[in-house]
Amino acid sequence: MVYDFMMQKMSKISDVNLQLRAETKEKFSDLAKMLSAPDQCEHMKFIIKAAGFKRGIEIGVFTGYSALCLAEGMPSDGKLLSLDVNDQYTNIAKKYWQLAGVNDKIELRLGNAVEILDKLISDQRNLESFDFGFIDADKPNYPNYFERLNKLIRKGGIVMIDNIIWGELIAREDHSQNDLETRGIYDTSQLALNNKEFDFHTIMIGNGLLIAHKKI
Q1: Is 59 exposed, middle or buried (0-12, 13-18, 19+ CB in 10 A)?
Q2: Where are the beta strands (DSSP E) in 24-90?
Q3: 28 phi, psi to nearest 5 deg
């Protein structure tokens, strides 16, 4: 009740954002849980806008809600590279990006995200050239995504990782050790913790958000 009041009366969520969430829940009711929480997305948008970030990478698009929010936080000349594998979902995303007027800021690439990231890394011009990254895709590959974003994010930039609490399963040793998804998330948190290039903290928002800041 308090959460709903906060989101309705104390947040600036556009009608387009709400429509996107509604259509996702209508068409993909069983998968709608894959949508990032609205307060989390507003928080990420706020960070991006306050920092003046212009160039970002998103891994995992689904129906485009998080990309829409990230792009809303970027200036008119900002560019978000969004990676996914499923055009059934991303076709919905493109419709709402157009409605929200952020489609020119978003470049969608479909394919294997690890391969796309490796191709970016192979071009020296891309190294440490992005302001931020957001990971919200297949959990077993989280460590691979984080390690690659480390090469692409500039000093002073951030990497944001969704689902870091994973419905509290992360705290259960049987899951963090034996379940591939939970293990992928846990291992990524430890990569961030032990990487001396980053400061990081975890926020209990949505399903848990880890924010790693690459030291200057």
Answers
A1: buried
A2: 55-59, 79-84
A3: -130, 60
**Cβ atoms < 10 Å from Cβ of 187:** 16
Question: 113: which residues sit within 8 A by CB, 6+ positions away?
Answer: 59, 60, 83, 84, 85, 137, 141, 145
Q: What angle do CA 125, 58, 29 make, to 5 degrees?
A: 160
Q: What is the pTM of this model?
A: 0.94
pLDDT in tens, 20-78: 999 999 999 999 999 999 999 999 999 999 999 999 999 999 999 999 999 999 999 99
Closest alpha carbon to 68 in 126, 129, 13, 137: 13
* Strand pairing category for 198-203 and 130-135: unpaired
Strands 130-135 and 55-59: parallel
Q: What does the alpha-carbon distance between residue 153 and residue 135 come to, in Å, rounded to a whole number? A: 13
On the 0-12 / 13-18 / 19+ scale of CB atoms within 10 A, 35 is buried
CATH annotation of 37-214: 3.40.50.150
